[in-house]
Amino acid sequence: MRFGLAIFAAFGVVSAALASAGCSSDTAAPAGSGGSSAADTSSGGESVSCLDDPRIDTYTAQLDKSGARGVLTFELVSSEPAPPAKGSNTFEVLVTDLDGTPLSGNLGVDLLMPDHGHGTQVPPVVTFDADSNAYDVSPVYLFMPGVWRIEFDYYGDAPVDAEPVDRATFFFCIEG
Ligand SMILES: [Cu+2]
């Protein structure tokens, strides 16, 4: 599942649905139906605690990471709500080159629960905000408690199914 700018959103819906079919407790409604179903989506009725998982990032505003190829920097400027929570989140993401210049090319976002092998049901929409020089990514729909991997792939002028210029991954523990 690789979600990019609007033209790829339809593809994202299909692949997300296929991938999420593999998760047995994937019963949350995709719409913002409130917290009433929280008990249904946690494993065995127990709340999930992944805060000690060595993979996860501790959320702070302006959390930045060097890309895997060392070419770009990806900064999670903010999450709303903060820290990221179960349900729909909005991320602001800044991508800069080695000179610190903000970039505005195609950005793909890939959401995955690595322990369950599925993505999300609602693909995020990525828009570039020329005022902040950053991307708005919404919704970042983290519907299930547990560890989520959020990958950003920067493509520049190339389409989002090309080889990315650089990429970075963030891991967050979503509590049930
Ligand atoms: Cu899951």
Structure in words:
- The protein has 2 helices and 8 strands, in the order ααββββββββ.
- Mean pLDDT is 83; it is low at 6-22 and 24-43.
- Helix content is 9%, strand content 36%.
- It is mostly beta strands and 176 residues long.
- The two termini are 24 Å apart.
- The chain has one domain: Immunoglobulins (Immunoglobulin-like), CATH 2.60.40.
- The strands form 2 sheets. The protein has a 5-stranded antiparallel beta sheet with strand order 1-2-3-6-5, with no helix packed on it. A 3-stranded antiparallel beta sheet has the order 4-7-8, with no helix packed on it.
- The site of copper (II) ion (CU) has 6 residues, from loops.
- Copper (II) ion (CU) is lined by residues 23, 113, 116, 118, 144, 146.
Describe the structure in brief.
With 176 residues, the protein is mostly beta strands.
Measured distance between first and last alpha carbons: 24 Å
The CATH architecture category equals Sandwich
| Main CATH class | Mainly Beta
Mean pLDDT: 83
Task: Output the CATH topology.
Answer: Immunoglobulin-like
Task: Write out the strand line-up for the largest beta sheet, numbering strands in chain order.
Answer: 1-2-3-6-5
How would you name the CATH homologous superfamily?
A: Immunoglobulins
Helix content: under 10%
Q: Determine Rg (CA atoms, Å).
A: 16 Å
